[in-house]
Structure formats: C-alpha cells, structure tokens
Amino acid sequence: MASVAFLGLGVMGYPMAGHLRNKGGHDVTVYNRTKAKAEQWVAQHGGTVANTPAEAADGKDFVFCCVGNDDDLRAVTIGAEGAFQSMKQGAIFIDNTTASAEVARELAEKAQVRGFSFLDAPVSGGQAGAENGVLTVMVGGEQKAFDKAKPVIDAYARMVGLMGRAGSGQLTKMINQICIAGLVQGLAEGIHFGKKAGLDIEKVIEVISRGAAGSWQMENRHKTMNAGKYDFGFAVDWMRKDLGICLAEADRNGAKLPVTALVDQFYKDVQGMGGKRWDTSSLLARLEK
Ligand SMILES: NC(=O)c1ccc[n+]([C@@H]2O[C@H](COP(=O)([O-])OP(=O)(O)OC[C@H]3O[C@@H](n4cnc5c(N)ncnc54)[C@H](OP(=O)(O)O)[C@@H]3O)[C@@H](O)[C@H]2O)c1
Q1: Atom in ligand 1 nearest the alpha carbon of residue 67
Q2: Whether residue 197 sits in one domain with residue 157
Q3: What's the whole-number average pLDDT of the chain?
Q4: Do 117 and 7 reside in the same domain of the chain?
Q5: Full-prediction pTM beyond 0.90?
Q6: Domain containing residue 116: CATH number
Q7: Residue from 178, 160, 285 nearest 231 by CA
Q8: Where in the sequence numbering do the catalytic residues fall?
C-alpha cells in the first residue's frame, strides 16, 4: 500500500482515483478545484480531501493528475499552491492529462532539479476504459521511476508501456489521436453513404466489422452514430485541443498531417453546430446537416 494523491476528479480522474483506492488498496488523498466533487469522492470511497494540490501532494510517494490542458497542468504543479511546492524527495508525479510533449519535458526537468521524478502518462480508452479500469497508458520518463510507478498505475490500466524519455508518452498519445481522426471521418462517411444507399447499417457493420475495415470506433460507436446520439463520450472540444497539440508538434518535427488538419476543421464545424461536448463520432452529424 502506497500513499497516493490524485489531482483532478473529472470524467477520467474520478474513476481512476477510485481504482487506486479500491483495486490498488492505496491510501488516497484527493484534490479537485471544485471541492464538492472531492467531498463526494471521499464519501463514496473513503480517504482524505485536500484544499490545494500542494496539500494533497505533501509527503506522498505517488502524485497522480488528470486535468484539462497544458495551462491547467502548470497551475496544479508549478502554480503558487501547486504540488511541486511540497513533493518529497524520491516521490513520483504521474501526469495522465493529454498535454504537449513540451510541457512534459519542462516539468520533468523541474522535478529532477527538486529531487523527484515526473512521468508523462496520457491514457486512451475513454470514459468506459477509466470506469472499468482498463485504460492504455503511454509513459515517458526514466526507467527507474517507471518500474516503481507501474504496479500502482496497473490499478486502472490494461496496458502500460514506457515509450522513451520525457515527452514520449505525449508523443505516442498524439499518434493515437492522429490515427483516430482520419478513422472516425472514414467511419462517418461509410455510415452516411450506407444510409443514402438505403442499406441496413446494423447488418452492414455486423458483416464488415469482421473484415479489414473493423476498428474500435466501428465496434463501439456505430450504434450510437446510426441513432444520431452524441451526448456522451470523448468531447469534440477535447479532441480539438488534442489535434491542436498534434499539429503544433508536426510544425516542429516536419511531419505532414493533411487529413488530421482537415478533420480538425470538420470538428470546428461541429463546435459551430453546438457540439462542443458531443462525442467525437459526431462527425456524422456534420455530414447529415
Ligand atoms: N474523457 C475522455 O474520454 C478522455 C479520454 C482520454 C484522455 N482524456 C484526457 O484526460 C484529461 C481529462 O479529461 P476529462 O474528460 O476527465 O475532463 P473533465 O471531466 O473536464 O475534468 C477535468 C478536470 O480537471 C480539473 N481542472 C481543469 N482545469 C483546472 C485548473 N486550472 N486547476 C485545477 N483543476 C483543473 C477539473 O476541475 P473542476 O471539477 O473544478 O472543473 C476536473 O477535475 C484531458 O486532458 C483529456 O483530453 C479524456
């Protein structure tokens, strides 16, 4: 049993922290900007509520975090009441936020100077993956810190991989999002075409999902897409944040991402349709407009 803190009890963080407590058996202190959520978590799982990230991180072996973007991550780490103010020597900060590789490298360096470790550890698997404790975790950082943290991360993961030095977890997550962007647009076009052709979409998917076109998105999203249901899942706003990170990194490393850039604009259209919090499969709604 380790002493653990978790910062950010959102759609992802809330159940992830729950697995650290219930599956991992760890002693968990939680911090959430909106305190009511932290109080609700403690009422449900036990543990302790902290008033600031620094208070939560004080004396802990592992400090987990899952907030929105680079700025939020900076606020809870190096901000005035951030966790980096109180992390103990030898502790490990594990960041599950999807953020830039740049901020990961910056925070890893700052942590090293202060005598503790930082791992960038973004996740894939969505809300259901977090609730069921079966996330894929892509980690960047030092092997020694990874080896210590992996058994703890295992509480909410099915796959945990060390991808390389600081920032490599975020770079791997970018590849994940690049692959998803084009794929979801392809799936949306397929279903759109099938409807126009007058075919039974359920029947079409039942057959083609067993062949070369099959994918997680097809398996898990075709039913809701066919029903025009998007008020759940991975928000378009988050996807645009992620694609922005991918496109900025591509500007730096020279990669060409023409389809990713185009799909990013399609998501902008979806935002304009009122779909900021819709699931990313709502690209179909744009075609049906
Ligand atoms: N949802 C998914 O399916 C999914 C899948 C994979 C990866 N991700 C990534 O995981 C991260 C979290 O996503 P989510 O869906 O859990 O988001 P969310 O439900 O919006 O939760 C965000 C959390 O961050 C906190 N937060 C935001 N800004 C903050 C700040 N400046 N200071 C302190 N706390 C702050 C929020 O606190 P409040 O409660 O006070 O707002 C909340 O606890 C994002 O980077 C997202 O891209 C999400």
Answers
A1: 24
A2: no
A3: 97
A4: yes
A5: yes
A6: 3.40.50.720
A7: 285
A8: 173
